[in-house]
C-alpha cells in the first residue's frame, strides 16, 4: 500500500492507558478486573504522566490525526522527536507563572519500545566537496538517532500503527578522534552536546525563535526519518524484480510525506540531497519526485510565527542543504521571471531567500515550491493563505492550494472524556457515531424530546459536580456548581484575547458592586493556559487574571455570584476533565488570527455553547449549527481590514465607553494590585497605544453578547435545546472526516472501514 508519513516536531499525546482500553474495546473488562483486585481504575489512570510532547493545537492535531489514520486503516506512521522534557509544568506562585521541568520519563514509559537495531546516523557541519564523481558532504559530525516505537491502535478494527520518535545518541568515538589526544574524560562528558538535541521541547506556540539547537532538532528528525522511509521503500518488493529497488520513479506512488507546518521543511532539500548526491538521480527528475511526494500544511498567518532562518546558520550547520536551496530558488525564480518579465518586486516577494542586513531562508516559501499540495486548516484560513500570505504563489499555481478543516478524534474527546454523554447519545441513535460522527445529525429528531433534554442536562450537571469536586480536592477552591461554567482554555497569547475576557469579568464585577441587590446569573469564569517562558506580555496576562480573581473572589458583596479561577497547568489530561463540565466556550480571537482552533470543536461536541468571533473554524461551526445557535459577536475579517486602513485608535473607545474606562482605570490605578499599583502599566499601555489585536474595538459587542448568554442561561430548557442542536451539528469536526479528505485529495489513497482479522484468528 502507499505509506503515509506524518512528520511533526510535536505530538501532544496526553495519557495512553484509557485511550488504549477504549480503542481495543477493553474498558469494561479492565474496569471489572481491577475492581475485583480491590483497586479503582480511575485512581490508577491518574498516576500516568501526560506525554506532553507538544505546545498546543498543532501538536494535539498530530495526535488526533494518528488516531484517525489508524481507525481508517491507513498505513500511516507518525515521526517526531522523543523529547526527554516535554512542555513545562506550570506552577502559579503569588499569581505568577513559574516553570518546572517536565521529567515525564522519570518512572519509565511502558508504551514505548526502543529499537536500537534501526539506529541511524545524522550528519551536521562539515563542508561540501564537488568532485567529478559528484558532490560529497564531508568532515561532518555524526549524531545517532535511536528510534522508540509507540503503538497507535485504531478503534476496534485490529489495526495498530506506529509512532516512531527519535532520540539523540552520541557515537562511541564521539570527540575521541585523533586530534583530541589525551583528554578522554572531557571527550566522554562532551557526549552530552550531541545528546542535547532531543533533550527539550521548545515551549513557543505561534512564535519563531531562531536558535541553532532548534534547527538541529528540525534536521535531526528529518534526516533520520527520510533514511527510514527510503530503507522501507527499497526493501518492499512491490512488483519489483530488483533484489534491492534502485529505481525511484515509483517513489511518490508509494510514499506520501505530510509536513506539519514548516518545522520539517528540511525534508525537501534532504530528499533532493539523497536522490541527487547519494542515489545519483538526475536533478530535474529528483525535483519532480520530491514535489510529488511532499505536501505542506500551514498553521498560522502571524508574521512572528513564520520560520526565517539566517543563511549564516545554514552555511555552518548544513552547507550542502544551503547549496541545494540556492539552486532550487534559482530554478523557481527563473520560472517566475519568464512568466512575469521585468517584475523585479514579484521576484523579491517570491524568493526563498530574503535579502537584507541578515539574509534569511523563508521556510514557508521553500515548502510551497517543494510541495504538490499546500493547505490551510479552516476555510477562512485557507482563503487568507491564498489571498494574502501566499497570494503570488496562488496566482502562479492555484491548483496547489486546498483547504482541510481541522477535526478532533471523537474517541478521546467524547467517548473517553464524557462517557455519560456518549451513553445518552448511543441510547437514542446507536453506536455508529463513534466512527461516523456525521450520524449525530440523527439527534435533531430528539430536540423536543423531554426525556432526552432532561438526560443531556443531567449529564452536564454531573460533569460539573465532578469537576467542582476535583477543583476543591486539587486546589482547595470552592465553586458554585449551579453557576454558569464559563471557560477559556488555550495557550496565553495576545491574539487569543484573554484580556477581553478579563475586561468582561471586571465589568460584571462592577455591575454587581454598583447594585448588589439586583439578581445576576451566577458565573464561574475559568481561564487556563501556559505562557511561553520568554513572552512577557503573556505572563503579565496570567498575573492580571490571578489578581482579578484575588479581588473578586474575596469580596463579600459578590458572594458566589461571580468567581474568577485560573486553571493551573492546563494540559491534555486537564482538558479531558474541564471540557465536559463547561457551559460556555470562549473562542474570541481577533478575526483573521486563529487559523482554526480545535478546542472550539471539543466544547461543541461536549455540550457547551460557544461565544466567539467569526474566526477559524468558528465560521464553519456557525454554518453547521446555524449562526443563531452560537453567540457570534464582533468584527469580521473585512471589518478588521477596514479598521486597519482607517487606523485603530484605542483612546476613542476608552473615551466613549464608560464601563470600559472604569475597568481600564481600575487595572491602571492598582485596584487589582494594591501591593504594587504600577504592576499592570505595560498591559494598559499596550491596550491603549499599540494593541495589534484591537481588544477595545470588540468590547462593546462582546459585553452585549454576554448579556444574551445570561438571558438564555436563565431558561435551562431552551439552553439545553440549543446544546443538543450544537452536538447534533458537530459531526463535521471529526478528524476522521479531515483525514479522509487528506487521503483522497492529497495522498491519493482510499481509507478502508474494513476490520482486519484479530491476530488470534488465521488470515485467509
From TrEMBL:
What SUPFAM superfamilies does the record point to? UDP-Glycosyltransferase/glycogen phosphorylase (SSF53756)
This protein's GO cellular component annotations are:
cytoplasm
Q: Which UniProt keywords apply?
A: Allosteric enzyme, Carbohydrate metabolism, Glycogen metabolism, Glycosyltransferase, Phosphoprotein, Pyridoxal phosphate, Transferase
Q: Does the keyword ATP-binding apply?
A: no
Q: Which reaction does it catalyse?
A: [(1->4)-alpha-D-glucosyl](n) + phosphate = [(1->4)-alpha-D-glucosyl](n-1) + alpha-D-glucose 1-phosphate
EC numbers on record = 2.4.1.1
Q: What class of enzyme is it?
A: transferase
What residues bear N6-(pyridoxal phosphate)lysine in this entry? Answer: 602
Which cofactor is recorded for it?
Answer: pyridoxal 5'-phosphate
Question: Highest taxon of the source?
Answer: Eukaryota
For this UniProt entry, the molecular function terms from Gene Ontology, in alphabetical order, are:
glycogen phosphorylase activity; pyridoxal phosphate binding
Pfam families per the UniProt record, alphabetical: Phosphorylase
Q: Which GO terms describe its biological process?
A: glycogen catabolic process
Q: How does it assemble?
A: Homodimer. Dimers associate into a tetramer to form the enzymatically active phosphorylase A.
Q: State the PANTHER family in the record.
A: GLYCOGEN PHOSPHORYLASE (PTHR11468), GLYCOGEN PHOSPHORYLASE, BRAIN FORM (PTHR11468:SF29)
The name under which this protein is listed is Alpha-1,4 glucan phosphorylase
Q: Lineage of this protein's species?
A: Eukaryota, Metazoa, Chordata, Craniata, Vertebrata
Amino acid at each position: 500500500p502507499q505509506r503515509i508519513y506524518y512528520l511533526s516536531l510535536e505530538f501532544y499525546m496526553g495519557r495512553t492507558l484509557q485511550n488504549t482500553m477504549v480503542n481495543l474495546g477493553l474498558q469494561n473488562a479492565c474496569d471489572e478486573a481491577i475492581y475485583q483486585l480491590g483497586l479503582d481504575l480511575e485512581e490508577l489512570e491518574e498516576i500516568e504522566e501526560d506525554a506532553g510532547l507538544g505546545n498546543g493545537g498543532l501538536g494535539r492535531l498530530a495526535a488526533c490525526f494518528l488516531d484517525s489514520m489508524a481507525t481508517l486503516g491507513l498505513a500511516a506512521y507518525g515521526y517526531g522527536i522523543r523529547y526527554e522534557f516535554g512542555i513545562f509544568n506550570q506552577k502559579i506562585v503569588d499569581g505568577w507563572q513559574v516553570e518546572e521541568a517536565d521529567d515525564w520519563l522519570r518512572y519509565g514509559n511502558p508504551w514505548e519500545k526502543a529499537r536500537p537495531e534501526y539506529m541511524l546516523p545524522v550528519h551536521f557541519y562539515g563542508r561540501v566537496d564537488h568532485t567529478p564523481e559528484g558532490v560529497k558532504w564531508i568532515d561532518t559530525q555524526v549524531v545517532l538517532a535511536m528510534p522508540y516505537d509507540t503503538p497507535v491502535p485504531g478503534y476496534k478494527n485490529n489495526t495498530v500503527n506506529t509512532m516512531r520518535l527519535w532520540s539523540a545518541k552520541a557515537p562511541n568515538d564521539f570527540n575521541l578522534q585523533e586530534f583530541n589526544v589525551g583528554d578522554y574524560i572531557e571527550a566522554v562528558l562532551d557526549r552530552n552536546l550531541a545528546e542535547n538535541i532531543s533533550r527539550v521541547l521548545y515551549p513557543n506556540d505561534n512564535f519563531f525563535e531562531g536558535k541553532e539547537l532548534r534547527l538541529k532538532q528540525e534536521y535531526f528528525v528529518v534526516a533520520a526519518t527520510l533514511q527510514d522511509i527510503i530503507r522501507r521503500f527499497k526493501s518492499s518488493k512491490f512488483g519489483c524484480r530488483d533484489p534491492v529497488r534502485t529505481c525511484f520513479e515509483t517513489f511518490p506512488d508509494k510514499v506520501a510525506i505530510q509536513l506539519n507546518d514548516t518545522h520539517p521543511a528540511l525534508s525537501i532539500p534532504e530528499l533532493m540531497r539523497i536522490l541527487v548526491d547519494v542515489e545519483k538521480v538526475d536533478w530535474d527528475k529528483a525535483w519532480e519526485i520530491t514535489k510529488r511526494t511532499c505536501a505542506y500544511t500551514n498553521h498560522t498567518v502571524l508574521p512572528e510565527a513564520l520560520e526565517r532562518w539566517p543563511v549564516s546558520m545554514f552555511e555552518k550547520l548544513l552547507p550542502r542543504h544551503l547549496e541545494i536551496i540556492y539552486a532550487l530558488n534559482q530554478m523557481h525564480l527563473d520560472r517566475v521571471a519568464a512568466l512575469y518579465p521585468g517584475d523585479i518586486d514579484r521576484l523579491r516577494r517570491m524568493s526563498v531567500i530574503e535579502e537584507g542586513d541578515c539574509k534569511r531562508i523563508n521556510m514557508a516559501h521553500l515548502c510551497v515550491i517543494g510541495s504538490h499540495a499546500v493547505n490551510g486548516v479552516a476555510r477562512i484560513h485557507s482563503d487568507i493563505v491564498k489571498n494574502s500570505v501566499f497570494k503570488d504563489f496562488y496566482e502562479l499555481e492555484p491548483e496547489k492550494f486546498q483547504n482541510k478543516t481541522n477535526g478532533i478524534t471523537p474517541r478521546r474527546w467524547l467517548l473517553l472524556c464524557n462517557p455519560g454523554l456518549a451513553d445518552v447519545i448511543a441510547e437514542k441513535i446507536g453506536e455508529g457515531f463513534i466512527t461516523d460522527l456525521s450520524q449525530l445529525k440523527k439527534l435533531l429528531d430528539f430536540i423536543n424530546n423531554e426525556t432526552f433534554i432532561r438526560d443531556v442536562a443531567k449529564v452536564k450537571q454531573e460533569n460539573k459536580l465532578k469537576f467542582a469536586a476535583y477543583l476543591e480536592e486539587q486546589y482547595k477552591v470552592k465553586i458554585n456548581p449551579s453557576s454558569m461554567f464559563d471557560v477559556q482554555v488555550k495557550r496565553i497569547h495576545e491574539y487569543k484575547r484573554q484580556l477581553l475576557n478579563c475586561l468582561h469579568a471586571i465589568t460584571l464585577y462592577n455591575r454587581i458592586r454598583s447594585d448588589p441587590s439586583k439578581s445576576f446569573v451566577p458565573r464561574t469564569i475559568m481561564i487556563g493556559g501556559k505562557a511561553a517562558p520568554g513572552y512577557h506580555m503573556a505572563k503579565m496576562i496570567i498575573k492580571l487574571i490571578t489578581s482579578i480573581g484575588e479581588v473578586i473572589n474575596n469580596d463579600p458583596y459578590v458572594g458566589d455570584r461571580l468567581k474568577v479561577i485560573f486553571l493551573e497547568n492546563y494540559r491534555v489530561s486537564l482538558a479531558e476533565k474541564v471540557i465536559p463540565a463547561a457551559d460556555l466556550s470562549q473562542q474570541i480571537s481577533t478575526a483573521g488570527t486563529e487559523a482554526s482552533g480545535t478546542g472550539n470543536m471539543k466544547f461543541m461536541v461536549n455540550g457547551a455553547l460557544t461565544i466567539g468571533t467569526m474566526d477559524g473554524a468558528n465560521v464553519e461551526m456557525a454554518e453547521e449549527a446555524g449562526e443563531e445557535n452560537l453567540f457570534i459577536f464582533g468584527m469580521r475579517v473585512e471589518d478588521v481590514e477596514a479598521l486597519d486602513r482607517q487606523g485603530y485608535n484605542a483612546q476613542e473607545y476608552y473615551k466613549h465607553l464608560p464601563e470600559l474606562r472604569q475597568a481600564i482605570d481600575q487595572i491602571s490605578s492598582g485596584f487589582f494590585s494594591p501591593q504594587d499599583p504600577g504592576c499592570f502599566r505595560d498591559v494598559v499601555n499596550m491596550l491603549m497605544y499599540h494593541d495589534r489585536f484591537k481588544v477595545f474595538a470588540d468590547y462593546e459587542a462582546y459585553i452585549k453578547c454576554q448579556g444574551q448568554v445570561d438571558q438564555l442561561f436563565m431558561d435551562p430548557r431552551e439552553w439545553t435545546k440549543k446544546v443538543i442542536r450544537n452536538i447534533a451539528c458537530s459531526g463535521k469536526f471529526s478528524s476522521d472526516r479531515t483525514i479522509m479528505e487528506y487521503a483522497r485529495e492529497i495522498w491519493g489513497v482510499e481509507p478502508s472501514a474494513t476490520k482486519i482479522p484479530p491476530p488470534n484468528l488465521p488470515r485467509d
